[in-house]
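Contributing new complexes? Match this layout with NAP.
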Amino acid sequence: MGCGNDATMNDRVIRLYPPPAEEQSLEGLYLAQDLRLLAEEHRPFVYTNFVTSLDGHISEPSRTQGRQVPKAIANSRDWRLYMELVAQADVLITTERQLRAMAAGRGQNFSLTNAEHADLIAWRREHKLPERPACAAISRALEIPIDTVLASYTGPILMLTSEGASRKQVSALEAVGIKVLFAGTQPRLTGTAIIKALTQQGYATIYSVAGPQVSHALLEADVLDRLYLTLTQVILGGEQYDTLTRGPAFNPPRGFKLHELYFDPHAQAKASQFFISFNRGGQ
Ligand SMILES: NC(=O)c1ccc[n+]([C@@H]2O[C@H](COP(=O)([O-])OP(=O)(O)OC[C@H]3O[C@@H](n4cnc5c(N)ncnc54)[C@H](OP(=O)(O)O)[C@@H]3O)[C@@H](O)[C@H]2O)c1
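Output block (do not edit by hand):
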């Protein structure tokens, strides 16, 4: 995941799996998977997506903004596919931290915009969906800069929190049209409670754009149906970084099965990348 403006927009990638290998257009690659068909009544389809280096880095400390996707792996080709996943979602799961960064003009802004994503907005219209997915931010304190958050994301915004959250904060948010969903009684929300709260709102395609702690909650609860990975072929080194999940070890380890694999030789001057999707093991 990451933005940028790679001038070279050769649109071709090579599908390696399932065979036979063949060239395909980058644009439309993930739209063609039609995730909405996979979500059945009472059975949401939950997915997440990470761009990672060969040594497994998905974020690193930044001098100005806490943590960020490493610049060496962020690229516009990955970003295009990331936004195709946004386009298919009913709701995005994010965190208060990401919402704050977006409101401050830092980090990723996952809004579909008419300037950059007119085709994806049109795709949503054709599928009779609202112009933009809802965005549900996991938050403990419910303390967000309301005006700038509302200005930075033009779709519906919701907050996901525990039942012990401050009623004063809940009222302040609801007064400006931000719905607050209660997902269980524990301050650390479980994946089960997060998905239940979203499903109760009628959301069926659920895309987590959040980081390693949220992915841990989803993995632990066995509710993550598909993992998208963009594996950029660079090694970053360094000592402080996140991988795609953080939390207690899984016992048993969570297994996945290869769903699709694409080779992208045009990613960056010095490195190519794979676009990989995995389905939850046992499906
Ligand atoms: N490379 C990629 O593709 C990729 C993808 C996503 C994110 N990232 C990067 O990863 C970094 C971290 O992203 P993030 O902020 O979304 O990370 P996160 O590690 O998933 O969550 C951040 C914070 O959200 C709260 N939180 C998470 N799970 C929770 C739960 N189950 N219940 C209650 N609160 C929970 C916690 O806040 P408290 O500690 O305050 O409780 C946690 O510190 C950022 O730099 C982001 O850009 C990279």
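Reviewers usually confirm one structural detail per submission. For this one: The chain has one domain: 31-280.
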